[in-house]
Amino acid sequence: MDLVGTMMASKRMIDLRNLERSYKTGHTENFVLRRIDLHIEQGEFVTIMGPSGAGKSSLLNVLGMLDDQWRGEYLLDEVAIHALNRKQRAELARRRIGMVFQSYHLIDDLTIAENIDLPLSYKNIPKAERQALVADALDRFDLVGKRDLYPSQLSGGQQQLAGIARAVIHRPALLLADEPTGNLHSEQAAEMMQLFRTLNQQGTTIVQVTHSEANAAWGSRTIELRDGWITRDTSV
Known about the structure:
Blueprint: H1 3-11, E1 12-25, E2 28-41, E3 45-49, H2 56-63, E4 70-76, E5 79-80, H3 86-96, E6 97-100, H4 112-121, H5 127-140, H6 156-168, E7 174-178, H7 186-201, E8 205-209, H8 213-216, E9 221-226, E10 229-233
Parallel strand pairs: 3-8, 3-9, 6-7, 7-8
Antiparallel strand pairs: 1-2, 1-4, 4-5, 9-10
Helix pairs in contact: 4-5, 4-6
């Protein structure tokens, strides 16, 4: 491969080839993702849209390595995810990926500060530096007064903010977000999208699932799913 080809290949972060996901009900196989061929370059800010049941969250779960019951090929930074075992995938996801969930997925028996610190605990970061990063995140997301509370003691919007803080604190190479502003009021939502844009400008690749045209406008590319198929891609 020539130098130009090598540079182009090194920029590709996500490469999905003929990826499919289905569920069996009795003798019937129901597909939620159909023949997905998708390439995302490092540094892109991609929005996935489509009606309910289109396969958006299913695709995000595959990208986040939360689902391993799919068929096809998935390469992340040229690493063949389809060839890794479950433990190897989990380790890679912890190091490289941040996820914002629609249902928060905070750990109930950890305080908000401990939840936010969790991604840092997987990395070789000195305790004092971790504490400083957590303190900064609590301040940035207006959660300083909630640091010692548990998720059940927070409102839905506050839990969403804590989930976003946890997802971005370790500066992941890839940030996956499922309806990231669904429980936030409009001003908070705009602030979070501005944060995502800043992270993207600093090099984080972002893939968000949203129904919001306003959120989609912050990205650089939109992919539409319907019935598990990619029906539109603004980069094509």
